[in-house]
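Subject: Protein entry, chain in single-letter code together with its fold tokens

Category: Structural biology, sequence-to-fold work with a learned token vocabulary.

Notation: Tokens come from a learned vocabulary of local backbone shapes, not from coordinates.

Start of record: The labelled sequence and token lines come straight after this line.
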Amino acid sequence: MGRQRRESVRMQAAELFEQEVRPPEVARRLRVSLKSAYQWHQLWRDGGREALASRGPSGSRCRLSPRCLEKLAGYLEQGPAAHGWVEDQVWTAARVATLIGRKFHVSYSVSGATRLMHRLGFSPQVPARRVAERDEQAVTAWKEATWAEVKGTGRSAGVTSASRTKPGSPAGRAEHVPGADAE
């Protein structure tokens, strides 16, 4: 969407250049920077409208073919347990990168696997880190009994001060002190 919109603006600039409108006026009319207008004008002079056309998405190309992407989406639909991760049912980016390496013999970074997952309509999950020996009953009992005591009721809503040396409010200041009239 964004690429098409930007190309549309460049094509409008080409129309204005064909009408002999100068780059500063093109920048003003299309609400673009003066630098962009001058760059587009130079490209237009050297190569015409075609020089201002989009050259497709930037960045490196996907290392998996469309068929491999379809297979990967199918593998992701099967879930992690079908591919050896039985601890939980979450696809982390690291697991997807490993799966891609195993199935397609292509190396992907964790961030690259994340982008690929988003492209396929999946989002990587971050598993909750829990100790294997965690005793849920003991944790619940501690929260109910001990945490309420430790937490306390909090501070009262009385007058507070950020100063450690002079607690109190402006109302408690002596009248002859600078700032006593400021409230």
